[in-house]
Amino acid sequence: MNNKTLFISVAAFIGIIFIAGVMMYKSQQPSTIASEYLPALERIDAPEKGGQHAKVTIVEFFDPACGTCSQFYPLLNNLVKKYQGKVNVVMRYAPLHQGSEEVVKMLAAAHLQGQFWPAVALLFANQERWVEHHVSNPQRALLVIKTLALDHEQLDKDWQSSKVANIIAQDIKDGQTLKVRATPQFFVNGKPLIIFGYDELVKLVEAAVAEAY
């Protein structure tokens, strides 16, 4: 085989690999989840912020003990600000870390007093105080939340109530239906973020905004 033939063969092989790579990339791009699973994205009274009439909804399944969730939190806020009135964020609980189920109950209880967002911001900002080796310490988390100006006695009653337990159970069930196995898991107008990353999330939101508006 002469050099020219070898060069053509290598070039053809590289071309085939490139085409295969493009096809694989396209096959991995987000597609809307099946219609029968769409109800699992929604729960009445789930914490949300953004535009009340926004046409783009980001649903995040999160664990307050998740370091990556903490890192994404300010970036998610930036998206809401950038697309003011056009993007809404809905938070769903996915307590995958040991001990986190009790902590999300506390967040749900804080939400009943209209204090979810300050509470989750505090927990993210102080993860080192209540998370050790990826294990949550609920009592330490409770002390963090109780630095907020809320009814502490009511908080204690609510986070241990059957009402809050049912809320968490529903989110866990919906997460299982949607095959949420790690946090954070994002869905934008029903499309899952398959290739994980902030840039990828931004692109998915940008595409949804462009399509909706």
Automatic annotation (TrEMBL):
* Stretch forming the signal peptide: none
Q: Which UniProt keywords apply?
A: Membrane, Transmembrane, Transmembrane helix
Which Pfam family, any one of them, does this sequence belong to? Thioredoxin_4
Q: Where is the Thioredoxin domain?
A: 32-210
Q: Which organism is it from?
A: Colwellia marinimaniae
Where does the sequence pass through the membrane?
6-25
Q: Which InterPro entries match?
A: Thiol_disulfide_DsbA, Thioredoxin-like_fold, Thioredoxin-like_sf, Thioredoxin_domain
SUPFAM superfamilies the record matches: Thioredoxin-like
Q: What is this protein called?
A: DSBA oxidoreductase
